[in-house]
Design a protein that fits this description.
Chain lengths: ~270, ~270, ~270, ~270
């Protein structure tokens, strides 16, 4: 079996390290390069707390390095300042970028799209690599056809600044695409204390719980005649994202188009 | 064993009927009378869907009837217009009122208190007969000493008008009595959509879910270092209240003071 | 709009009554007949606690009655002794049977199948009319592809005799169709008390909780790296099944084949 | 304020490190010594990933070292081979041992008890330092008086070998102390697949879920007429135990008796 050759940009960040640890465990993936602004020249194993790997941390992503490593895929968990440039360099070097870094705007995505077409080299962008969360959103959209009444409860650690979470908003938007416009609850319902009924997005109520101890959890609660159907996802650590990243690497290695969203790689 | 003799006022209402059905199943309780504005003269069994009981529905609660039935306890699930008068008649007739009807104001309660002292006949008032809900509130108050961070999620059918529920408010108030004043969550947290963080009462956030299918549920969620502790009560039907009503009847039968709240009858 | 004409067999049973109450609320459905061994000759409204409907309860299902009512669909919630005969009569009368009664054996189903082909009149059989439970099983099967590790917890009232529930078994069987054969848990795990790890079906563990107060609930709990995904269905009353029955009536009214399972009528 | 002086034995183990990190954050506690078989002579800060602390790791716990550091408390998270000796040395040196290490047998505990009496120096032993778990068990025992029907579901990662968990067994034993002997469930209930109803301890059913992703969770589910009451504890990390260890240090610093169990230090 030919192994998929992977280059990781942002190798010393929390996600980058986790990705490298995961790649090292997979038989069909081969780590061929790693770059970061930190620890340049050191062996990757030192950075991720593993034995010597034989791959040194290099500086900025450049075409020459990518080509010399014969990488198939560039996994990018860098930062909003670097991701656009890195993605273009990858495509022009014949390497498929698998991008987890957020911060690409619409114009940049359009430019990547154009480059993909011109070079006939694919690219993959994902705002969320959690297979569990993606399935939750997919199912929620499916249930919404049969049980239009739904509340979303998302629960996070108390250091999270924004409420509701991006995943909760995206879940609600997905359901709103399939259900008929409607008002939930009794038309005369009222709040004795403002905010009790949560954030209202298109009639769907989202409730944001913030507590120490919690990590990242979401419950989508559908109600119908005499029953409820609940879909819940609990993420306990950064490892949550690894099966999604590994799947993306595999599915992207010979990609020739731009694909956005992990959902496309799930059957 | 001498049975406790019980008179039920509001016998044909939903709660009254349920109370009667429960009394008929208990070996140590004896139904001796039942009153209502409806179905007067009919056998109680007919009203509650049971075989003939031998007790007819009578009209307004009067001292003479109470005395003739030699009732020990008057269970009152009537309405705000009748409950005060009924309670006074009971006490003056030497019968302990067990009151589940809401609507007594402070002046009326004070008057009942005075009457209890004068007549040396007790009275029991309870806003909530659910033993499970009472225990939930008691435990919440206890946990609050160790885990001051708490969010409350209450979930009800979508015909409920007010949010948050009375039980959720009472739970929060109980916790606020024991925990030090504090702000929960990150000081810089913000709502992208108003209401996301729920109703704020003294820094505790309450979230009200309303969906068809749901009945009456509450979850009190405490967060601490690396852990959460959750207390949840699910009420599925009116039967929920019956063990609390039966317990109250037993504990009230020889009461000589005014007692408010089922909590006082739990060890 | 032409209304769908529905005949209900087993009209006075608990499910039959519920079905009739539901049909009476739907604009596109018309109750044209109702049969039962009880209350023959009485108006259906009396039986289900509604105002006069204008349809009397008749005796055994017969071709003549079905034809005279010009029924499109025969909903059967009778008993194992009647369901086979009723279904055949319906098909031969040009009426599509919608069967919720259990007890048809394989030979009988094959005979129905043959009759359907001969008469070119469809038939619909469903062991479960709960849309929520069907979706739960469908999703479970989908998740099993990505998260092969799964435990099932089913929770029912304590009057249920058998454990695990039929739905739990069916859920497990569905997952086993898609996941690779595997052993779950640590190879050296052991039970200090027998039964702790539940019932084992193909490596999936099923846990049956039985408690008063509970109704019918199931949780399918998938575990993966750093995360869990949970699908839970709570059924609180017989009403749970009505949306599924109504959907089946609509989808069956012009059916010309044999269809087994509500899943086929969900997109 | 005089700070409590703490010596940590087993400083380089997972729990020891966590305890040291916690002590360093507390204003009223002072780390005065740390011992381990590993890293002797190195600064404690190096071991726990913190800046220099000024306390070096020393070898075996000895009276001389304890006295020279003027420790008030010896926190012991060593191993079954060392804990008994360490505890005796501490008591004889006038230092209160706070023991989290398991493995003391009855004879050893009796000997510690005798030594405590003789020396008038206290000792504290705890099998579980999780305040949340202790409260869960306490509440469970309280609920058992009112709702005798209970099932316990405990959920752990799939590397756990034994089932049910020690906490589940202890929870059940606590409930059995307060409830009347009884059989739960229907007298005629049967298992279609053995184990479905879980482990039976005195009529209480315990269900052990094992899945990757899970950490350590337990749900105690009480059922009564028309309702359920649930107490759930989720432990997400080793940090869970720290508030209990810190509380124990504070409560033990001037202890003059033997105390067993964190429950004694909660109001």
């Amino acid at each position: 079996m030919k192994k998929i050759r992977v280059f990781v940009a942002g190798a010393c960040g929390k996600m980058g390290q986790e990705v490298i640890r995961s790649i090292l465990k997979e038989d069909d993936l081969l780590l061929v390069g790693a770059s970061d602004t930190r620890h340049q020249g050191m062996d990757v194993g030192f950075v991720v707390g593993a034995p010597r790997v034989g791959v040194d941390i290099t500086g900025p992503v450049e075409s020459e390095i990518l080509r010399s490593t014969q990488a198939d895929v560039l996994v990018d968990f860098t930062n909003p300042q670097s991701v656009f440039k890195n993605s273009k360099i990858a495509i022009m070097s014949g390497v498929v970028p698998v991008v987890g870094t957020t911060g690409l705007d619409e114009a940049e995505i359009a430019e990547i799209q154009a480059l993909v077409k011109k070079e006939k080299v694919g690219a993959f962008l994902a705002p969320n690599f959690s297979i569990g969360a993606i399935l939750m959103m997919r199912f929620a959209k499916e249930v919404g056809k049969y049980f239009p009444n739904v509340d979303i409860i998302e629960l996070h650690h108390d250091q999270k600044l924004d409420a509701p979470s991006g995943t909760a908003l995206k879940t609600a938007e997905g359901i709103l695409e399939v259900r008929e416009p409607m008002v939930q609850g009794h038309p005369n319902e009222y709040e004795k204390i403002p905010g009790a009924r949560g954030a209202d997005i298109g009639g769907i109520h989202i409730h944001s719980v913030r507590l120490p101890g919690l990590i990242a959890h979401q419950e989508v609660l559908f109600g119908g005649l005499g029953q409820t159907l609940t879909i819940r996802h609990d993420a306990y650590s950064r490892e949550t994202y690894m099966p999604g990243v590994m799947l993306s690497i595999r599915k992207s290695s010979d990609l020739t188009e731009l694909v956005i969203g992990l959902d496309n790689f799930l059957d």
